Amino acid sequence: MAKAILEGVKVLEYAQMVSGPYCSKLLADLGAEVIKIEETSVGDEARRRGPFLNDIPHPERSGLFLYLNTNKMGITLNLHSTAGREIFNELLKDTDILVEDNPPRTMKELGLDYEMLAEINPGLIMTSITPFGQTGPYRDYKAYHINCYHGSGLATIIADIMPEEVPRPLKPGGYLGDYDCGLSAALATLGALYSRLFSGMGQHIDISKQESLITLERVEIGRQGNEGGTLSTVMLRGTVGGLQRCKDGYVVIVIPMEHQWQALAELMGRPEWTKDEKYRDEFTRAQHAQELNAHVAQWMAEHTRDEIYHRAQALSCPIGAVVTAEDLVQSEQLKARGFFAHVDHPEMGKVKLPTTPYRFSKTPYRLERPAPLLGQHNEDIYCHRLGLEREEMVRMRAAGII
Q1: Residue scoring higher pLDDT (133 or 2)
Q2: What are phi and psi for residue 196, nearest 5 degrees?
Q3: Whole-angstrom Cα distance, residue 380 to residue 375?
Q4: How many CB atoms are closer than 10 A to CB 116?
Q5: CATH of the domain at 124
Q6: DSSP result, 33-71
Q7: Per DSSP, what are the bridge partners of residue 127?
Q8: Three-class SS state of 12
C-alpha cells in the first residue's frame, strides 16, 4: 500500500479535551505517528465526558475521547516531576511537532516553553493552543468553550437566526468551536512543516481560540471597524427566516438578498401576504420580521423537511435541512463514500466512527488503531524506544512518574 501523506512525521501531543487532540488527530489521520501524553492516573479530561457506552460513565468508554484519539499511541507521564521532564526531553529530541494546550505560564514554569525546547530540538514545530493566545492582557485567562465562543462574537450571529423564545446565552452544539480551533491549528502546523523543508528550522505557532473563531465571521467583524456597528442594520432589526419548524423536523432559512426572498415566495406559492407593501424590500422585511416569520412558520409547519429542502434547491432558495446524527449514519450518500468505518476497541467493542472528509487517489485513509487505553503504550515507548528496563518502569510507576 502507498505511504500515507505524513508518514515518518513524529508528533507529541500534550493536550486535553478537544482543540489540541483534534489538531493532532488530523495529523494522525494523514499518517503521522502521534504519541499522546496523559497525566498519570487521571488521563485526559475527555475520558470523563460523554457520551458513554450504555450511558455508564467509564474512562475507557467515552465516545468523545474515542473519536478524538483514534490512530494515536498513548502514554502516561508526570511532567510536574523532574524525571518526567527528563523523559519528555528525550522523546522531544526525535519529534517533529509538539501540540499542546496548556497555560503559557504553566509551560514556562515547567521549563517547557518554546525557547527552552528549541535548544533541545531546533527543528521543533511547537503548536500552542490557548483561549486568548500567548500575548496580551488576557493571555493567562482561563476559558471554557462557551466563553471563547461568546468572546468571538459568533454566538450573537447564531442567536440572530434563532427564534426569540430560545433561551440565551447560546453556543453551537457540542464543542463545535473547539473543533474549528483544532482545524486552524492543524492547518498552521502543516504550513510550518512545509516551511521547514526549505529552512530546516522549526518555529512556535501561537493559536488563539478567540481569534480562530473570529476569523470565521470576517464580514461582521469588518462592519465593526468600518461601519461602527457589530451587525448590519438589517440584522439588528430582525432576521427573516432563521430556524423554522416543519412537519417532521426543522429547516434553516437564510435569505438576505432580494432574489432569495423571491425564491422563498415562489416556494410558498406566492400567497397574498407576500405582496404586502411592508415586505417590498430587505429593509422593510427586516422591520416586520417577527410578523413575516409567523406567516412563514405557518406554511413550513404544513410541509415535510425533505419536501421543503428539495423544492427549495430546485428554486435556488437557500434553505438547509436540520439533520440528526441518525440521519447522517443512515445517509446513502455517506454510505456510498465509506465515510463511516468500524474500529475494534478493547473496552467498547466494535464502534462505528466518522473518518475523513477527503479522499486521496494514491494514499487512502487508514484507520489503524482505536483510541489508546490510559498508558497503553508505555512499554512500547519507554522500553522499546527509549531503552528503559522493565524494572525501571515499575519503579517510575510506583513513584508516580509514569
Answers
A1: 133
A2: -65, -25
A3: 10
A4: 13
A5: 3.40.50.10540
A6: EEEEEE-TTT--GGGGSS-BGGG---TT-BHHHHHHTTT
A7: 99, 205
A8: strand
- Residue 103 phi/psi, 5° resolution? -55, 140
Alpha helices in 250-304 (DSSP H): 258-267, 282-287, 289-300
Q: Residue 345 and residue 3: Cα distance in Å, rounded?
A: 25
> Which letter does DSSP use for residue 8 in this model?
T
CATH number for position 315: 3.30.1540.10
Place of cell 421543503: 308
Instruction: Enumerate residues 6+ apart whose C-beta is below 8 A from 256.
Output: 234, 282
Domains identified in the chain, total number: 2
pLDDT, average across residues 119-132: 97
Per the rule left: phi > 0, alpha: psi between -120 and 50, beta: everything else, 103 is beta
Q: What is the mean pLDDT of residues 152-164?
A: 67
AA identity, residue 222 = G
Say if 136 falls within a structural domain: yes
Identity of residue 384: H
Cα 79 off chain centre by: 26
Buried (b) or exposed (e) across 133-154, using 16+ Cβ within 10 A? bbeeeebeeebebebbbbbbbb
